[in-house]
Design a protein that fits this description.
- Two copies of one chain form a homodimer.
- Helix content of chain A is 33%, strand content 17%.
- Chain A is an alpha/beta fold.
- In chain A, the strands form two sheets. Chain A has an eight-stranded mixed β-sheet with strand order 9-8-10-1-11-12-2-13, sandwiched between helices. In chain A, strands 3, 4, 5, 6 and 7 form a five-stranded antiparallel β-sheet that branches.
- The interface between A and B is medium-sized, with 38 and 26 residues.
């Protein structure tokens, strides 16, 4: 199961009213579409714009309406931390604020070095307002990090200190419900943010960054509070040994929460320059020991958020090449290959949208759509119709002969 | 959002196995279909035959399974009455019964004059069986009216006195649950119906009608009990300022219940001879002050209930002309136009059916279906697939950039 992050798009007027997928030369995905099942998937339901967390949960068969407990928890698990019941996790950015606490750069110049040194000032921070809490802070990829509050009497019903836009001031977190737990959590969070600024603003790493003309990573902005999601294991739910190849912390987190084995691929960065070859090798190597391999490729979403049509086209063509290599190695007479996206990210919007994404699946005994292109418009004429993210795993398990009967 | 009441139909053998929409010349709706999203909508779910109340609620994004509390309430709101918790409203017909209380004409010869004079005998009626109740009665359009019982200890779980067919006797309302409230409401309702006959049968208006050879409006037949629906406002739910152009009391009621502004159009009658030009002008005028304008056009449903294929074709062509005028005035490079129906009313059945209705939407960045006709069969080959009424508003809000993200 290959998931191209941010795959779907809308036609772009300046590009001949084509989508990136329509403009891209993708012979391998086209071949898969023509010879197999082809259709459209609404990650959640038609028109609903999903975050990556709920979208990928749905594709893996976990209903977010039932199981979703906030993104921070999945990020923390993905970063290798453990979460116990009642603990609260946040995803964080190192960011740059000016003297009036106005956000100048939400990503601190996309800092990618020395975040471990900065983090030493923040991990195990003692909070005066909530001395019973333990603070765990861990940097992940580039400017990203996770924060966990360990202790009792906490709630994830608090607002984000991150204003999520440049030029706005850092926000005071507020309780979103009238409970002692939410009040306590907001208080701890505000102290953490304030203290992060005090500890980082004169840090040696930042002095050097300023000297080099780079934005200082002088504050941490948490968002997306979450508690440990109590997910039934993938093995229990689908009777499948599954493994995952990804460079994205969130996806690793979802896999850890579901017991899907995350394979280590050093060169998988989750960016546009990710080493697809290394990912492909890892997928092929893991075939023998897995019933299902989940390959998540991030690049198309990065290009979409940058609003870069050409870059998205180029990355989709690279991904198609990688998929071609997998198709060469995998015996399609005995195995199934599925390609889809977790959501649409139109390059003209630069954010997720509620549009459906194409899906194609090839393998033994799969009906042929006879539609010769893998793209949004062609997929709407496919033989699979328009489905929801949660429909995918039942179809997969049914074809691979691992479905269980409903009724008798 | 333009809703053509009773739009959908089935192929009619004597008309070359075409539906009215297939027989109609509709260049504007065809253009919208070809250049935009095209598909089928099941107002509720496949095969479910909806009333106009639940169908229009669903199109506006309100789940009838959660929010529907009976049609009478929506009719009362549409007639300008106020409903408080616990009060019960009914929609009513002035009708004609013979000396044995057998219904001769359910619409009293489609009476359209002097219903206010008749209503003076009924409004504020004192009921002997339930002296604590206040009765409010108000005529609306032609033979139609609304009745409200104000007071405490009432229930909407009572059967209709209206037998809903000619030749049958007026029915005694019965409690549909074993509660004191349902018993009391049925008792009050039966006394109201009986008394309406006593007060109307010798009324001067009816003496004159009989002299002119017209059916006397000698009884009131209530049906469809409802309580005030507690709907979240459209503004809260979708962050949109919406307005509505309609000649139909029910649609006005749904709008009042959701805080959608109902624009007054004097010539909009909700019939076949409604002034579409006046409606179009009102839609165009309201564009500047609204994020969404809901235009409800009744005529096609009237022709369908009359079983008149040619009249339905003619009305659909008129409606297409009106839609063309809106398309001319609205800048499609910046705005969206959506056309659909609230349900199907096949002319050969003369009642609502559970068939899906076509939907087409044009506007910026909308993918082209390249299907050149707006009709039931062509819509089944469109790029939108087959959706449900409740899916419509999420898709609309996503395209106009007002959707909120699920997850993170």
């Amino acid at each position: 199961m290959i998931v191209l992050d941010g795959l779907g798009d809308r036609p772009v007027l300046s590009q001949g009213y084509r989508t990136p997928l329509e403009a891209a030369v993708t012979p391998n995905m086209d071949r898969l579409s023509k010879g197999g099942l082809l259709g459209l998937i609404d990650p959640i339901s038609p028109g609903v714009k999903p975050g990556s967390d709920v979208a990928n949960m749905a594709l893996l068969g976990y209903d977010p309406n039932r199981y979703y407990t906030g993104r921070g928890a999945l990020e923390a698990l993905g970063a290798g931390l453990v979460l116990h019941p009642g603990e609260i996790a946040f995803r964080c950015n190192f960011a740059t604020v000016d003297h009036s606490m106005r956000v100048v750069d939400r990503r601190a110049g996309r800092i990618h070095r020395y975040t471990s040194r900065l983090s030493k000032e923040l991990n195990r921070m003692k909070l005066e307002s909530t001395p019973d809490l333990k603070v765990e802070f861990k940097p992940t990829v580039e400017h990203r990090a996770v924060l966990v509050f360990r202790g009792s009497g906490l709630s994830r019903m608090v607002s984000d200190p991150d204003p999520k836009a440049h030029g706005l001031k850092v926000v005071q977190s507020k309780p979103l419900e009238k409970t002692h737990e939410a009040k306590k959590t907001a208080q701890a969070l505000n102290e953490f943010v304030r203290t992060s600024h005090e500890k980082l603003k004169h840090h040696q790493v930042n002095k050097e960054r300023i000297e080099r003309g780079e934005a200082p990573a002088n504050i941490v902005l948490p968002r997306g509070p979450g508690t440990n999601p109590e997910l039934p294991s993938f093995k229990t739910k689908f009777n499948l040994r599954a493994s995952c190849v990804t460079g994205t912390v969130l996806i690793k987190g979802i896999c850890r929460a579901t017991g899907v084995q995350v394979l280590h691929v050093r060169q998988a960065t989750g960016g546009l320059r990710t080493d697809l070859g290394a990912k492909v090798k890892s997928v092929i190597d893991s075939f023998a020991q897995s019933d299902l391999v989940f390959l998540h490729i991030k690049g198309a979403d990065v290009a979409s958020h940058d609003g870069d049509f050409k870059s998205k086209v180029r990355f989709l063509e690279e991904a198609d090449g990688a998929i071609g290599k997998i198709m060469d190695e995998v015996d399609i007479a005995e195995n199934y290959i599925l390609v889809t996206g977790d959501h649409s990210t139109p390059v003209e919007i630069r954010e997720h949208s509620g549009d459906p994404v194409p899906v194609a699946m090839g393998g033994p005994d799969v009906p042929s759509s006879r539609v010769t292109k893998f793209c949004e418009a062609a997929a709407s004429r496919g033989n699979l119709g328009r489905l929801r993210g949660l429909d995918l795993m039942p179809i997969v398990t049914d074809f691979i002969g691992r479905s269980s009967k409903f009724g008798n």
